[in-house]
Design a protein that fits this description.
The complex is a heterodimer of chains A (about 110) and B (about 120). Chain A starts with a strand and ends with a strand. Chain A has about 110 residues and is mainly β. Chain A has no helices and 11 strands. Chain B is mainly β. Chain B has no helices and 11 strands. In chain B, strands 2, 4, 5, 6, 9, 10 and 11 form a 7-stranded mixed β-sheet that branches. A 4-stranded antiparallel β-sheet of chain B has the order 1-3-8-7, with no helix packed on it. In chain B, a hairpin with a 5-residue loop joins β4 and β5. Chain B starts with a strand and ends with a strand. Classes of the chains: A mainly beta (about 110), B mainly beta (about 120). Chains A and B meet through β4, β5, β9 and β10 of A and β5 and β10 of B.
Chain lengths: ~110, ~120
């Protein structure tokens, strides 16, 4: 199975500053069709997960442009610019290129 | 808008069976692949299964293969997860999710239903 490793597992950040979360896969996530099915999800306390970013860098409907994704192959990054209080959540990366699909362990974003 | 409502959760004894349902509305259900994802209490997300738009393709996590079965009724706009031979480690909130553009993108999620396996 593809192992997804997120760092850090906890990220204290000051309001208005930026935060970055790294996600590394144990093998390439490039699909045979040329796409890379790497997504990022946000899960606020007591809520279901919410899709933020799909195929590395595409923002889902309604997601603020403060959220951006980048990367390729096995290394990916979620960046949150100008962090707001509502961004407090756990963030997960997920690969859906290979079966079984797998998630990272999650990164908890906290406000300092 | 897209609405996904899971049901069927509850307390079940180890070794018994349970069927979860996910009622979909707000979109053409028969056009989209659907997923089940679970989350044990206080833990991270674990992908469970996916079924193609027409029910033809199904894939499972190793942890549930041979015990769980995903199916759908496109005439009823409903997704199912049949859980057999449940174990304590199956205790979790079970979410259904609708694919977006392609089956490999989980675009919209339900609120989840809690399954507790306990004697």
């Amino acid at each position: 199975d593809v192992v997804m490793t997120q760092t850090p597992l906890s990220s204290p950040v000051t309001l208005g500053q930026s935060a970055s979360i790294s996600c590394r896969s144990s093998q390439s996530l490039v699909h045979s069709d040329g796409n890379t099915f790497l997504s990022w999800f946000q899960q606020r306390p007591g809520q279901p997960p919410r899709l933020l970013i799909y195929k590395i860098s595409n923002r889902f409907s309604g997601v603020p442009d403060r959220f951006s994704g980048s990367g390729a192959g096995t290394d990916f990054t979620l960046k949150i610019s100008r962090v707001e209080a509502e961004d407090v959540a756990v963030y997960y990366c997920m690969q859906a290129t290979h079966f079984p699909h797998t998630f990272g362990q999650g990164t908890k974003l906290e406000i300092k | 808008q897209v609405q996904l409502v899971e049901s069927g959760g509850g307390v079940v004894q180890p070794g018994r069976s349970l069927r979860l349902s996910c009622a979909a509305s707000g979109f053409t259900f028969s056009d989209f692949g659907m997923h089940w994802v679970r989350q044990a209490p206080g833990k991270g997300l674990e992908w469970v299964a996916v079924i193609g738009y027409d029910g033809g393709k199904k894939y499972y996590a190793d942890s549930v293969k041979g015990r769980f079965s995903v199916s759908r009724d496109n005439s009823m706009n409903t997704l199912y997860l049949q859980m057999n031979s449940v174990r304590a480690e199956d205790t979790a909130i079970y979410y259904c999710a609708k694919s977006y553009l392609v089956a490999a993108i989980l675009g919209s999620w339900g609120q989840g239903t809690l399954v507790t396996v306990s004697s």
